[in-house]
Design brief:
This protein folds into 2 domains: 10-232, TIM Barrel; 245-333, D-serine dehydratase-like domain (Lyase, Ornithine Decarboxylase, Chain A, domain 1). α4 packs across α5. The protein has helices spanning 9-24, 41-49, 60-68, 86-92, 101-113, 135-147, 166-187, 199-208, 222-226, 317-325, and strands at residues 3-7, 29-33, 54-57, 74-77, 95-98, 118-123, 151-159, 193-197, 217-220, 228-230, 235-236, 245-256, 262-266, 278-280, 285-289, 294-297, 310-315, 329-333. The protein is elongated. The protein is of the alpha/beta class. It has 10 helices and 18 strands. The site of pyridoxal-5'-phosphate has 12 residues, from β9 and α9. Pyridoxal-5'-phosphate (PLP) binds at residues 33, 58, 78, 159, 197-199, 219-223.
Length: 334
């Protein structure tokens, strides 16, 4: 195949061990967010073999694939189920993140029909630019969840969709703990899981080693898989491997326009990757991409490259996702 993604399992394992060590030092449970792998069974197995016991994904389809393949660890659905996924959510998901009462009522109804208990975590919105509930609504929804049969309210969660400063992460995480304590006092209970997510927040935690008391879970995807805290940029997390996944694309033509202007056209395009999501190695620069072709500037370098050779890139999260979804990609584990 003209596009190959090579997965360095030793590097992946080291990223997981490193993140686990950092989290354990502050009594945080680490959950691997595997949505970038689009339900890749063997890599998810490796993540579990590296010592993690909980996986999370935003797509029910991926969780179903993993569970049906016999991966039996606890799995969290990060994006609330759509109305036509309620049945599968109760069947395959251990904990789902939620923000809407109609969905929660539907989950409760289905759980009763299937005689199952289902765990739910409610997402708190601290101006974090995505789904979630603010203060008063959060309390009302939690109250109703507590009354809904066959649902267990297991905790609150926060997700940072945009990059924040170190102090903003800390302050918003502290706000989450405050909301948890208010709910615990109001309803006389204890919520077992107070969960923070995003590699931006994780990168900040690795840097500062500071997290408010009361947070007990970190959900990390991009940081574990790619060692970066923001996909666009990219911003590297110190001490983590950044080239766990490398992409090799084959050269289909070399255009000689004088010695200095040599261009290679690759068997790869927007259908496979996004331009901003290619991290060139070997001092190559990408200057254009169409649906099925990518043009890279060789200049005077790499005089030895010929048609049929492969050029290597690192990838960001979006490209990784697209490559794993694509039938045109061959995934090789080493
Ligand atoms: C709710 C939630 N938590 C955690 C994550 C992990 O984020 P990241 O890949 O930045 O680590 C995601 C990813 O989008 C998410 O949607």
């Amino acid at each position: 195949m003209s596009i190959v993604v090579t997965v360095d399992l030793a590097k992946l394992q080291e990223n997981i061990w490193k993140a686990t060590k950092i989290c354990c030092a502050q009594d945080l449970e680490l959950v691997a967010v595997v949505k970038g792998l689009c339900g890749h069974i063997n890599i998810c197995r490796q993540i579990i073999q590296a010592g993690l016991t909980k996986l999370a994904d935003s797509r029910l389809h991926n969780i179903k694939t993993l569970k049906q393949a016999g991966i039996d660890c606890e799995m969290t659905l990060l994006r609330p189920p759509s109305m036509d996924e309620i049945d599968d959510c109760i069947t395959y998901v251990d904990t789902s993140f939620n923000v809407d009462l109609d969905v929660l009522r539907a989950l409760s109804h289905q759980a009763q029909l299937m005689c199952k208990e289902h765990n739910v975590s409610i997402v708190f919105d601290a101006d974090t630019h995505r789904e979630g509930l603010k203060g008063n609504t959060l309390q009302q929804v939690c109250q109703e969840v507590l009354e809904l049969p066959n649902l267990q309210l297991t905790g609150l969660a926060i997700y940072f969709a945009k990059k924040e400063t170190d102090s903003e992460y800390f302050q918003k995480e502290a706000e989450l703990v405050k909301q948890v304590r208010a709910i615990e006092t109001e309803f006389g209970l204890s919520l077992p899981t107070v969960s923070v997510g995003s590699s931006g927040a994780f990168g900040s935690f690795v840097r500062t080693q500071q997290i408010p008391e009361g947070i007990n879970q970190f959900r990390v995807g991009t940081g574990l898989l790619l060692g970066i805290s923001s996909s666009v940029g990219p911003e590297y997390i110190e001490g983590f491997h950044h080239f766990v996944f490398t992409l090799q694309a084959e050269i289909m033509q070399i255009i000689h326009d004088g010695v200095k202007n040599r261009t290679a056209v690759l068997h790869m395009g927007r259908v496979d990757v996004e331009l901003a999501g290619l991290i060139p190695t070997d001092e190559l620069s990408v200057f254009d991409i169409t649906s099925d072709h990518t043009m890279i500037c060789l200049g005077e370098r790499h005089a030895d490259l010929a048609v049929g050779d492969k050029v290597t890139f690192g990838v960001n999260y979006y490209s990784l996702n697209r490559l794993f979804l694509s039938p045109y990609t061959q995934v090789v584990l080493v």
